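Action item from last week, closing it out:
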Amino acid sequence: MLRKIDEKPDLKNETVTDDSPDTQEKDQITSSNNNTPAETSDESANLPVSIKDQRIGIEDQMNELSHQYTQLRNDLKTNLFTEKDELENKKDTLSNYLDTLNRDQTETDEKLADIKSQNDNAEKEKLARVRADQKEQEDFLSDYKDQKNTLTAKLERNQQTLEEKQKDLADNEQSEKDLSGSIKEEKDLQKMLALMEDQKTAINKLYEQRAEIQKDIDDVNEEIQKLNSQLDEVNGKINQTNSAINSLKGNANQIESKIKNDRNYRIETTASLERHVQSLDEEHKKIESELSEVNNNKAYIEKYIKDVFHSAFLVRDVYLDKDKDYYVLADSFDNNNQMNNLFDMIRFLESKLQKPVTVISTFYDEKLSEKVDSEIQSNHLETPNVVNLFDQLQVSADPTEQPVTIPENDGWITRTDVESKDTLIYDQNNNLLMTVEYDEEKINRINYYKNEQINKTNIYNAAGQLSSVQIFNKKQELTEQSFYRTDGSIVLTVIFDGEKANSYQLFDANGLLEHDFNKKDELIAWWLKSLTLDSDNSVFVGNNDDLLYKLITNDNKIESDKFIPLLTNAQKNIKEVINLLTANTNILNILVEHAEDLQAIETSTTRDISVSSISHSSSNELYLPDSLKI
């Protein structure tokens, strides 16, 4: 029936062929009808067949075909779901990959633009400044060398002058020695005196010359010392300038090397980025082509779904994970529909999971365990673990062993109702005092009357122990209900105002008031804190309108995919159901009561969703298009 996904559908020219479900279906019915006589034995063929028998036979064949059609339809639905899911997953994968390519493309384009915008201007300016500084230092060095040469020449001249002056000084001193020697050599004192007188002028002149020569020597030494100091200073500047020039040369070399490396890096990086851009462009075109093909195939599947199922969306069975723990939640147990739904949910889950579930309930039923056991045994299912608010409140470590009995009283007149088997007790004036209701020959309730009106009811558990007491006013309205532990002590009193409970008084083992809650929500919330629920491995199932289910779904710590709501009367309220599913896209799995509810959702849903019917008889109901219904 399905074309291969690889083939491109021609949606404009597509027509219904002989391979359509309706055509195959008609062929099967025609073939079955034509084969009817051949399937009968020779003996039966000779027997007369009435018109009614023929009709019944035809109806049986149509019923068989209807079940075959239902199975094939479900198989086709599963096939289409799998095919559509694969295409959706592939589309998501390709779309995510395309987004990644687009981000990579943007980042690469930005990097490429950034690389291309880079240049060496700043480094070149820096190099120019270094070169200028180097030229300046070299000019300083040249000046310092000229100064050094000048100072060296002056120093040499002063050295030469110093040597000449020192020679003059030595000559002067020698002349003095010569004169002094000639005087010492004279033996005649008069001649010595005369000689001394004659040489006095020469000696004075020698001393004067010596003083002048010494002064010149001191001046030259001072100049030499000054020139040496200046020469040392110039040499220091020359050394500093040489160091500065060498440092500037090193800086210049580093800048030139950086400019070269940066240029090579830009060339290589630009080439690499351009190759990457080209690769991204090719990959982008390839993925877009694949995505286009997936979209075309998805459009074909969606059109096929709409043509076959008259809806753009599919509904499949709710998937139950056997590794999870399933909790069925219920706060109300007041009517047959609520009881049936609770047991149907248990039955549905356990038949699928092949293991017991846990029932968490906050309603009062003195024989809840017995009712659950009876229902489970009749369906041969696992006995669920029942966790009940009132069972836990009423349990006692020391329960009374005295079951309730009706005492003998000579003042009473006892009668038995024929239909209900209840016991009616009157006084001697024929005034009704009480009625005793039984469940399997055990007292279940005792109703007390005054002036022919009920004013109190005692409710007993399966063991015959007092479980609850109801108090009524003159208008027969429930005003108070108290609950007792199995040891006889009071544990909870509910006060009513009209039909509304406005106080939940909780008592401890000593009968002292422990809590006073205004609403049942508060009592339940208090009790839930005592339960240990592994929310990570749990799935919670319950009526979407149920109080307990609402309280747990409002827990922000539990993820929305941990809940499976039961939507009641879905067929009658299909608009409200669709609005609920449209507004809450986090609801992925739902339960409904009957197959008709499932069919109504399937034909009206605005998105794909998983739906299962919990109805006990749903497996026997036909789920057919109008053309196949009798």
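Closing note: The chain has three domains: 120-309, 316-396+529-613, 413-508.
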